[in-house]
Structures are given as C-alpha cells and as structure tokens.
Design brief:
By secondary structure, this protein is mainly α. It is 81% helix and 0% strand.
Length: 415
C-alpha cells in the first residue's frame, strides 16, 4: 500500500497540481478556451446567417488566426521582456471589451458581418499574446522535467472546452431567442466566462526569481536574436515544418463546421454543436492517455503519429455525408491532433533556452499564423467546388506532405 501511495504521489500530474499557481492557471485556461470556442461557432453561425457566404464565414477563422503570422514573434519579445502574468491579465481585460461590443451590436440589431469579423481579429490579437505568455508561464511554474505533463493537462482543458464550448453554443442558439439570429444568449455566456477567467488570473502570483533579460534592449535586435536561435536549431526547424503543414492542411476546416452542418449534413444548431465538439472529444481521449503516462521520454512518435492520424480522420470527415460517420471522423482526428498539439508546445519549450523561450513560442505562433492564409484558400475552394471535395483535396495533400517531410526531418527522431 505504501508503494502504491508513493507511486501516486510521484506521478507527474500530481506534482504539477501540487503547484498552487498552476492550479489557478489551469481553470483560467479552461474558461478562456470555453469562451473562445463558443465565440468561434456562434460568430460563424451569425456571419453565415447575415451573409449566406461560405467565404465570409471562413473569414471568422482567418481573422482570429491572422495576428499570429505577424504578431507571433513580437508577442514572444514581450513575453521575454515583461511580467507574463501581467500580459495575461491585459489580454483577458481586452477580451471583455471585445465581447461587450459584440453584445451591444447583436442586441441593438445593427450588427453586420464585417463588424463580427473585425471583432474576431481583435480577439485574435489577445489570443496570440495569451497563448505565448500562458505556456512560458507554465514552464516557469513547473520546470523542464514535467512541462510535457503540464502542457498535456492544459490541453485536456482545451479539448474539454472544444467539446463543451461548441455544444453549449449550439444549445444556446437553439433555445435562446434574443439578439440577431438568436445569438444574444450565447454572447452573454461568452462574456460571463471571460469575466470568471479574469478573476482567476488576478490571483496568480508572479513566479519567484524570474528575470526578464531582454527588457530595455532594442526590439529589432531581440527579434533578430530569436530568429537566429531558432534557425540554428535543426530539431526546432524540423518541428516547425510539421506545424506549418498541419496548419495548412488540417485546421482550416474549423470555421466551415456551420457550412458542413447546413449544406452537407442538413442538421440543426444543436446537432451542429455536437459536430463541432467531436474533435474535442477525441482530443480529450488522446490527452487523457498522455497525461496518464508516467514517463514521456520519447516525444516525436506522438508528434508525427498524431499528425498522420489527425489528417486521416479529417479525410474520413470530408468524404462523409452521414452525420454519425462525420462525428466519428472528427473524433479520430481529435485523438491524433492531441499528440501533435501537446508535443508541439512541449518540444518548443524544451528545445529553447531560458533567454529565448518566449520568442521561440512566438515563432511557433508565426508558424501557426499560416493558418488564416490556408483558411482563406479553403474558403474560396469550397465556394467553387463544394466543402466536401475541397477538404478531401487538402487533407490528402497533408498526408502526402507529412510523409515527405518526415523522411527528411531526421533530427526529430532523436527527441
């Protein structure tokens, strides 16, 4: 019995949660992600109702991720230079303002598609800063040895949010009758979630003995130093190549969930919410398995294997016009993408130095920043040849590119 108890207490997940500030960072992330996924689904639904345009609906995803392309590295400089907790407080406060404006627009009936797309861009600005600060702060709190477990636990909250955010959003769209296209109740819920997240983040303490070595230096020199550090790191470059491929060929489908629900599967808002939650269900399953592992010595199999599985699941979804098969395809995709997403952030944190960790995470955000370009491309393609065929083409392209890149990115196999 003593050995069993000792084994439980020494499990990395237990050690992570023994940290008081991480216990607050985790629910803050859960609330933030719930609000994010509710916003994405509800805003896509609203824009589709206002415009009846696939391309404008896809612009919701483009607008959210666009700040990552140019702002990712800049956010990394800020995270290396200033109090990461304070930066998160600022991003949370920014979100409260953005959602309040959306509520005013939908409740007064003056909302237009371009306004929601613009607000989503502002939401993405805060999101770019938040994700860079959040993961480097997690590293500060738990250290290198168990950071992969900490990121896995964070991803559990993100996938839980991906399950319940769209599901709750779809439910509120189905039962609420306030605001334009019945979106008022959902946007009020998003505001409430962000308010709770803001209260939680205020109670996290600044990590002890944390210094900010780049503070006061030339911002362009800091940017250049970060780029040089990544360019000279072959495993990091190999990792970022996979990140670019996945963000070109997997994630662009997300804003098209309302389009698939309406034009391919012919389902209502509640069933659409469940469909949007399916990737999260799979992600939760995959992340739960990774968290249960006591040792994660070999990380690249999760990263590469997860990428393959995610694209195979997406291919199944793209070929289906049967609701239940579509749900299963996205669950499989979610299992795969959990391995990719968890190890992506963990490996960047582990492969970077203390001085450049924030900028390395910022460069990761820049790699993710190709996503809005591919989202826009998929939107145009779906408009002309249909969403199913368009997604089949890019998921097949992704499987091919991953196979080719893995053959050349041999430095990843040492991790």
């Amino acid at each position: 019995m003593l050995n069993i108890t000792k084994g439980i207490k020494s499990h990395p997940a237990i050690i992570v949660f023994s940290n008081r500030d991480y216990r607050l960072l985790w629910p803050n992330g859960l609330l933030w992600q719930l609000a994010r996924w509710m916003w994405m689904l509800v805003s896509g639904y609203l824009v589709l109702n206002l415009s009846e345009s696939i391309i404008q609906t896809q612009l919701i995803g483009v607008a959210y991720f666009a700040p990552m392309l140019m702002g990712g590295l800049l956010s990394g400089v800020f995270v290396d230079s200033y109090d990461r907790r304070l930066l998160m407080i600022m991003s949370n406060a920014w979100n409260l303002v953005v959602v309040t404006i959306a509520i005013v627009l939908v409740m007064t009936g003056i909302v237009q598609s371009w306004q929601i797309i613009g607000l989503t861009f502002l939401f993405g600005v805060a999101g770019t800063l938040d994700i860079t600060a959040r993961r480097t702060l997690a590293f500060d709190l738990v250290g290198a040895d168990i950071v992969a477990t900490a990121i896995s636990i964070e991803y559990l909250s993100a996938t839980g949010a991906l399950i319940f955010g769209p599901a709750i959003g779809g439910l509120l769209l189905g039962v609420s009758n306030i605001g334009v296209a019945n979106t008022g109740g959902a946007y009020f819920s998003v505001l409430f979630l962000f308010l709770l997240a803001f209260v939680v983040i205020l109670n996290i303490r600044k990590p002890e003995n944390r210094t900010y070595p780049t503070s006061g230096t030339n911002i362009f020199r800091s940017l250049g130093d970060g780029l040089k550090a990544v360019y000279s790191n072959k495993p990091m470059l190999s990792l970022l190549g996979i990140t670019v491929i996945i963000n070109i060929t997997f994630f662009p489908y997300l804003p098209l969930i309302p389009v698939f629900a309406d034009q391919v599967l012919n389902i209502g808002p509640i069933a659409m919410g469940i469909l949007g939650a399916s990737q999260g269900i799979g992600g939760f399953m995959g992340a739960s398995y990774i968290v249960s592992r006591k040792s994660l010595n070999r990380k690249y199999p999760y990263y590469i294997g997860g990428s393959f599985l995610a694209l195979v699941g997406l291919l199944v979804f793209s070929l289906s016009n049967i609701y239940y098969i579509s749900v299963i395809g996205l669950i499989v995709a979610g299992v795969g993408v959990s391995g990719f997403a968890i190890m992506q952030a963990s490996l960047v944190l582990l492969l970077s130095t203390e001085e450049t960790r924030g900028r390395s995470m910022g460069i990761l955000s820049m790699a993710i920043g190709v996503l809005p370009i591919s989202m826009l491309g998929l939107g145009f393609l779906a408009e002309f040849i249909g969403p199913g065929l368009a997604l089949t083409l890019i998921s097949t392209m992704g499987i091919t590119l991953i196979s080719i890149w893995f053959n050349f990115a041999r430095s990843l196999r040492t991790i």
